[in-house]
Amino acid sequence: MNSAAGKDTMHLDTPRTPPTPRTVTVAYAGGDERRGPLTMGQANMIRCILRDDPEHINNHDVWAIPPGVGPDDVTDALRTLALRHEGLRTTFPHAPGSAPVEQVVAAEGTFAMTVLDHAEFPGEPARYAESVARAARAGRFALGREFPLRISLLTLRGVPVHVALASSHAVTDGSALAVLREEFLALLAGEELPAPASFAPLDLAAEEASPTGKRKSEASLRYWERIIRTEPQEMFAEPRAAGADGRARQLTLRSRRGARALARAAGRTGNPEATVLLAAWCALVAHRAGQDSCVTAVPTSNRFHARSARSVNTLSQDALLCLDVRVPSFDTLVRKTWGAALNAYKHSQFDSVRLWEMIDRVTGERGSHFARDVVFNDVSVLPATLLSTAPAAADGADEPELAWGPFQALPTRMLAFTYETTPRLHISLWADPALFTANEAEGFLSGLVLLLEAAAERDVPLDSLTGVTGVRPAERGPDWVRVDGCWVSPSAVREALSGALGGLPVHIDTDQEAGLTAYMARGGDTSLTPAGAHAALMAEVGPAHGGTGVLAPHRYVLVESPPAEADRSDAWRRLHIIEEGTGRSRQVRHER
């Protein structure tokens, strides 16, 4: 494996003499004016846009301009795209302090393009363009008035070289940007584009509001609730997870070996390549996390329908895949993966507000927080692919190539994009550096290739993954126990509960059948109740507070003072109980 793990290979390249930006205003006219409700995907992303860091939410892309294209050609192509796609002419008016509830499509308008003309580029042009596009992600889009693309045209002595742009996630996702790039290049080549075949956002909103659409949404909520209630709340519940800072570097794999192995494994098992790759991903993630199942978001699910495959719209609603890996071999897992993936895709249309209301309710009852730890985005099977801008390996290279790219904000623990599976397996991975050192991240991707190579030749026993891939399961230590399907650290629960109660003495007793029992010495605090203790703990548990490995006790027991041997469960059990209960209901038992 070739890599550059020790080098920060991506930074904002700055020209020795920065070019003076020139703004070009581009007018368009001739579209249809429309207005109506939001789609579920738009509502989902607008919720995130109003809440989260713009660099987490906004997208970016770089479009290389072919030789012989002039600035006017670029302007004309961009104008055509704005007229062709209603999403690019859409704004979301709303009063200050409120969230939009409708979208408005303009018939005419203008957008700005910033022209940066260079005497010379400060480095490799594609990398420089990437840095310009990435920098444009900073700052929230003004949903009520701003054109959803921030466009920079990078020229070299007047000759267009790249378009670098950032986009509002309320209007485009990664696949939509890929469609725009493909059509932009076709227009520059003089091709005539066929009429759009996919739904415009307002048409999709109408379908979602139909009786059939509402039934699909209700079924999706039930599907998600079953997983949220019963499966691991954190894939990476382990001691190292507490050190995360929310940023990770891009690691890109390009491997002809991996592509050949994937094709052979698919042929040997009689399954599509996408299914085999997803099974391998889930097997290795669950193995590394030490979990019995892999819970992973699969965001591209809504683009597998002809009506949405090439839609310039944000369709960013997760399919939530839950794959039980407690099977003897890889071939068995592959057979399960196909059905599990279809079930996840089927249940990926939902009202996001109601979804998060359900998640908050269910996790409150379960005493946890749901962590969207793992995301696997296979865009290789889509009609248009958003390719990584990481430099490609030489055409003759056969060994897997690993290249490190920029740091970026990571609202999850592990994110992967599969861009292509032939002629190379091309995957970019962002892995939380608290959980994966640089060598471990490289080892994970190279281990994925090794698993595919083994699966190409034989049915691989899943209990042999460490030997086959070199990837080792998480080390948790004797303090960690599995409770209610989750890995839990009783000492972390004790510290969190004690902290939530202002430092009161707490002891956590574990029992395989009864779960966690919290003994609390209330001292002079006569107002403390099981329900109050649970509420205080839940206010402190969640991604904003760390809280990894914390699951609320199933039973809260109030005593007056701690025993002399405060580290012994039997000593706490002998104390007089003042009050006890679940804390999650009114079923409490008072002093006896």
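The record above closes out task 2.4. Task 2.5 opens with a second protein, given below.
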Amino acid sequence: MSANLEELVIRHTRRVPVPSVTPDPGRRIGSPGVAARRFDAVLMSAGFKLSRDLLSRLSGLPEQTVVDLAVRVLPVVRRLAGDHVRHNAYFRDFPNNVPDTLGFWLSCVREAFPDPVEAWGAESRVEHGVQNLLDLPGYGRYRHTYEELLDAHDELIESAGDRVTVLHPGGSLDEEVTGLYLALAGSVTPLTGAHAEDLRVLAERCADGPQPERIPVRENRALINQARLHTGAGLLLDTVTDVLRLACALSDGDVSLAGPSRFVSFPRPVRRALLAGLDDVVRAAPAKLGDVAAHREEWKRLGERLHPHEYGTRWPHAAGVFAVARGERRAPSFASRVEALLAAGDVAGAATLLRSAPGLLFRSLDRLLRLAPSAAVQDAVLEAAASVADQVSGRVLLSVREHLLNRGGSRGRTRVFVNRLSRGRTTADTRPPLGKGVITGLSAFLDTEVQRRLPEVGHLLVDPAVLDVALPLSGGAAADGLGTLPRGSVSPVDGELLRLFVHWRERRIPTDVDLSALLLDAGHLNPRRLSYTSLSIPGGAHSGDLTAAPDGASEFIDLRLGEIEADVIIPQVRIRSGEGFEEVAESFFGFMLRDAEQKGRPFEPRTVRMKSDLRGPGRVALPLAFLRGEDGGWRAKWLHLYLKGRPSFDRGEGDRLTMPDLVRRLADRRFLTVRHLIDLLAPGAASVTFWDGTRLPGHPVTFVGLARPDGLHEKSTVVTTGNLRDLIPA
């Protein structure tokens, strides 16, 4: 367990828990610092290194202690970069000597049919598109070993532009685990799927220890309640939905309630705990029965597992929940009361009622302002919002602010939605526009309220590279991995050669995953594709099609950015057959950047700039898009999308838009970024300095950047992409 906890700490914080060792006078320590320097050298081969402080601390430890630590840490960082597997390519010499597509297919036919007559018939079928390539024994399987691939490639030439991820010293493992638990449990934004699982593990370990003052995210509370139930600690419940989420957590279901969960058969002590908690909630606030209707079917299924009738009148208030779910008892929901007022045209009355649910009021502001029949009623809506603004979470305030960024214009535009499962869809915008004055006034009010909550930061040191990173305002806005940024973020792409990669390993059945790249012009038109059906184009090459991965398989796409005749590049990872992204044993996507003369193997961990796990619903993943700017430079726009269908150029999810149109809508959408919060922080800071990447101040600062720089004062407050949620006020 301790090794797993150490891995969690390193993945989330890039800090290494440093062992505490009691000196043993009779034990040989070895040459001071030699083991630490060797550890650092091996790390650099994977694109990581020890900070000066960490190197110094490890240099004072016994040699065997450092060696043991290295043995545990190296697999963790290699996994972060995707270097824990052997990345073989279908074509041994890739990106060189990639054959012509049709010629390669015909060569597979000739191998399969040595008889000239049979070969002629098969070649004819290939040329007419009716020969199934999967029927050919030489197609879709590696033809050489990984060692043979290594022999075909020169060593990577080091470049100053190669990625270096610095590892910093941490405290003891217990200190680091407790700190990470408090940070995740107290997060003001929902966690990604992988981070939520990490919280589940940490909550089991930390259930009896320090707890955060607040747990604002209900999904997090469900995972913590699961751990508390197992350890006998009191449950944290104040709504009936908290109990439903806990039941989902206990069933390994969806605690966000965005999708259906299949409840397990609970042991009797668990059933009693759930019913008792539910009874306490309703006894304290009977009006909360109105929340049952929102998840009526889930409550019915849960009732079949809890058997509340077995306990007679022991928990009558809990029994009332299931009576409401079955329709035997009326309990008008809060939402239905609001809808009744709106149906009657009483917008001001609906706003007044919504004051008792401040978060819902702010999420409903656009609708209320649209329905307001007069300026006076609009003013009443805004006054109701102002009166309860201090009770609304910072995440909701910022979400409304981002919504207003995209609210201008008129009817007929296209709206883009991405849900918590990272599924994207579009629909026509039929809403009447909000007045410019309303948008301007409400935006200023929201900025003032957010600014009021921001902490004092003292000396603010900002890495300009972080300014265009989007704020993580939703749970599915980012993926777990190395170098990933929240959806909507923009980051520069510096390098002459862009290499995309995907790796997967099937669990039970043969699984065919295809990596492709769609290339478009500036108008998102004139499509061309790099894929197994088009292995090469001017400036680009595909490594070849692999159709199964019992021991793991990798596909690559090489793009020489200076030669590609395109302005938009959209990588796609598509499951053609077999297990889904959430079913395979492993699947991840990433990209590397190299100088033109660096050579090296198809996969070189030092050149990996981004690697993200693919663990979403649907059969097609769109991790990001690459866009050429007016200055000719390339930028990455982060998408983190999963689609159900098969968007060759075809339909994206849901509507009349093609997949390129869906990407264009997301690329055009405006996101609230770190720049916005820095602008709000600046007036209250003692000073604001934009770091040029060289000298660091010798005093504590509040640093905001992509990663913690080596040499920053140890008492500094640090916000990086790993804890970007800490910028969002409560």
